[in-house]
Amino acid sequence: MKKILILLLINFYFVGYAQTNKPNYKNLSLSFEERAKDLVEKMTLEEKISQIGNQSKAIPRLGIPEYDWWSEGLHGVGFAGKATVFPQAIAMAASFNPDLMYNVASAIADEGRAKHHKFVRQGDLGRWRGLTFWSPNVNIFRDPRWGRGQETYGEDPYLTGQVGMEFVKGLQGNDPKYYKLVATPKHYAVHNGPEPERHSFNVTPNTRDLWETYLPAFEDLIVKAKAYSIMGAYNRVDGEPANASWLLLEDILRNKWKFDGFVVSDCWAIVDIHKNHKTVPTPEEAAAIAIRKGCDLNCGSVYQQWTMEAVKKGYIDESEVDLAVYRLMLARMKLGMFDPADKVEYAQIPYSVNESDTNNELALNMARESMTLLKNDGILPLYRSKTKKIVVVGPNANTLSALYGNYNGVSSRPIKVIDGIKKLAGKNIEVEYYKGCPLVINETTSEEYEVISTEYLSHTDEKGEKILGLKGEYFNGKDLKGTPIYIRNDKQVNFGWGNSSPNATEAAQGQVNHDEIINEDNFSVRWTGKLIVPKTGEYKIGTASDDGTKLWINGKLIIDEWYDHGWSSFLNVFRFEKDKIYDIKLEYAEGAKVAGVKLIWEIPGENKIVDKDPMHLNNEELKSIKDADVAIFVGGLDATWEGEEMANRNNIEGFRGGDRTRIELPAAQQELVKSMIKTGTPIVFVLMSGSAIAFEGLDDKMPAILQAWYPGQRGDAVAEVLFGDYNPAGRLPVTFYKSTDELADFTDYNMRAGKGFTYRYYKGEPLYPFGHGLSYTKFKYSKLKIDKKKIGEKDEFTISVKVKNTGNVDGDEVVQLYIKDVESSTWQANKQLREFKRIHLKKGESKSIEFILNSKEDLRYYNAMQREYCVEKGEFEIQVGASSEDIRLKQVITVE
């Protein structure tokens, strides 16, 4: 017994000794702040610098694993294998349902957490595998021409703030100790195009616009929702690069908003500081100024390459680097990365949540709530008992690209619009489908050209033997330098690697060594060999790729598109002779995100474009439409036409670098719809886009228009609305203008420029106003009451209204409250959304809705002279209704 007691005492002593002599950063009893401080103190300067790039290196002696900070979750976990794909951000904003937004974000975070821990167990620590999600995008969608507007929550600061806050809360979770994920609102600040100039553009917003339009949503997400990270924009603001701005990062973010999280640059934005903005002349000075002003993490390589030089030259002190590293280590600790997994509740989330039935149903619910009925003369819903034949036409009906939007994941079970319509139509309704036309009249995609097949390609191996296919040499890094890390025979160049490594399959099967594994991003390939042709003539030959390509024939460079871009096709004409052998060399470089490349051609006399993409309907198809009860045209845009920095769109009419130069429906679709209208069959237009479209009068000739946005994996939500299985109640988070002529200069960030941007300042008559959306039932508003008619500058007051469903079906109504300064002496907005509620009412049901406002918060404007928010004395009109234009009731209050 005595011996056992002695052994226990000895064991207790050594365990206690081990615990008390642990380094502080491993001591779970200390605060995260103490632990992070200790960890940074133990790092060398070189080790600290290794942590301030998005690809943070491992420090084995301190037990720090490598970590890539770059993950995306805009509307589902992005670029990390299969995941639930929710509707695009702009579509979710159209739901006007912050509670549902929270549920979606929480589901995204669950999937992100589960994926992360599975990747860690597999030793996969690459990009898109982390817990720091660079979402949401809360830039204001000022102008419908901006290609990235689809990523935002629309044009209104209040709506953006309300749904954005719930998205942040859903991502970060509610555990008192650990974050589920870290949310990163972007792009701070004053950032909404044009895309081609974003790396050098200087925005000079007036002070009122800065504080009343461009900053409020960021303030909501940082101050109220406590987002723990924020991303700087590419552009300058008042001459300062956003990632090195005293005004944005120090004065506003740290001092006024008391932000204590970390700041990350947009990707390669630090390069812009010296290369494009030319604020400083060298990269080491760019690193120094950005770190000093408060940008802690560089998405890119400038920090890791040049910060040591900046310290040596005295541009920055090591203590300033310490602060950035401390903030980053603190974030990783708050995510539980340095604690045992069994201590972190979120680490227990099972992988089965990924693409679960529950999340699939949630995706459907959000898609339903986003559906926005713009016009309906009574043709919708389609009654199955009265409908015998439907003809569906249009390029977006039978494609996945119109479902997903951008910054998306990929679903295992997506439902295209045409499949949803066929399924819900039932057995008694005949459904025919014709593509009819491409989205844009001069659209070309790689699918229209043939991949050069193996029989025309060859090379010789080390033994001198002829092998069909090309020799592929793979390099890590984009510049094809050094010795290739992997060599293989590729029978064709026909690859769509997505977000995976080119030899991921071989690596998973143990067929390659660790040092032969090709990066998922930042790699390059060279293919070489011989080409023969089936006939003499002039061939169109080239490449289709996501990122850069060069192609040589007999040593002549015929394709030179060596830059990062989205999926694009490039062709040149080359005359080949049959039986002659040609040397061929193709080089490819992958930057980030999706990877893929094809070697394509068009053999003379075998033009496939006309067959694949007709520009019109033939007589037989038109006759079929004429015989139908209704025709449904599914068109608009997709994310290959509006999006982020698309250089391949620069020479196409109506498009420029990801933006649009015209907001009208593309000509190919207009002409097709006109031919359909002539048949006399009623046309229902299902518009899929991430931005406003103008119809040039065609809207008057179609009885119904349904804005379906990019609805995510559940495209069958469109069919549910068409057949009345779901009563739509989505609302426009943007203004639809009648034409491009209504818009001011795209580069003018003054909200009052021209006729004014957004419903808050626009002086014209919109095609469809902000907040607009129809239902299959009707709602009556009555009994507007305000508990105070005279209020002070800091008073709360309550507004109530009664809403009744007076129609024949159940449905949702979005009750919207706007405030208008009746006689402003301070150049106020036309009106401003200050409250909204989405409610469900059964037919005949009534509900009283109550809003509580605060004059200091809801009636304020920014006084540029006093540099603070103020409330103007005088009369304000309280407007309640179904949209910014459809105001049902209003009363005046007075601020004394």
Report on this model:
α2 (32-41) crosses α13 and α10 (269-275) crosses α11 (283-293). Helices cover 25% and strands 24% of the residues. A hairpin with a 2-residue loop joins β27 and β28 (659-660). It contains 23 helices and 40 strands.
The amount of helix comes to: 25-40%
Subunit arrangement of the protein:
single chain
What's the helix count? 23
Question: What is the strand content?
Answer: 15-25%
Approximate shape? globular
The separation of the N and C termini measures: 85 Å
Low-confidence stretches: 1-19, 608-613
Give the rounded overall mean pLDDT: 93
Q: For the report, how would you describe the main beta sheet?
A: 8 strands, antiparallel
Task: Return Rg in Å.
Answer: 29 Å
Overall structural class, as computed from helix and strand content, comes to alpha+beta
- Find the count of extended strands (DSSP E, 2+ residues): 40
List keywords for this structure.
23 helices; globular; alpha+beta; 6-stranded mixed beta sheet; single chain; disordered N terminus; 8-stranded antiparallel beta sheet; 25% helix; 896 residues
What's this entry about, in short?
The protein has 896 residues and is α+β, with helices and mostly antiparallel strands.
Question: How is the secondary structure organized here?
Answer:
Layout: H1 2-20, H2 32-41, H3 45-49, E1 55-56, E2 67-68, H4 89-94, H5 98-121, E3 132-133, H6 157-172, E4 182-183, E5 202-203, H7 207-214, H8 216-224, E6 229-231, E7 236-237, E8 240-241, H9 246-256, E9 262-264, H10 269-275, H11 283-293, H12 302-312, H13 318-334, H14 357-370, E10 372-376, E11 389-393, H15 401-404, H16 417-425, E12 430-434, E13 450-451, E14 457-460, E15 466-468, E16 470-476, E17 486-490, E18 494-498, H17 504-508, E19 523-531, E20 537-546, E21 549-553, E22 556-561, E23 567-576, E24 582-590, E25 595-602, H18 609-612, H19 619-626, E26 630-636, E27 655-656, E28 659-660, H20 667-677, E29 683-688, E30 704-707, H21 716-722, H22 758-761, E31 779-786, E32 790-791, E33 796-805, E34 811-821, E35 832-841, E36 846-854, H23 855-858, E37 860-863, E38 868-871, E39 874-881, E40 887-895
Parallel strand pairs: 3-4, 5-7, 6-9, 11-12, 11-26, 26-29, 29-30, 32-40
Antiparallel strand pairs: 1-2, 7-8, 10-30, 13-25, 14-15, 14-19, 16-17, 16-19, 18-25, 19-24, 20-23, 20-25, 21-22, 21-24, 27-28, 31-33, 33-36, 34-35, 34-39, 37-38, 39-40
Helix pairs in contact: 2-13, 5-6, 5-14, 6-8, 10-11, 11-12, 14-21, 16-21
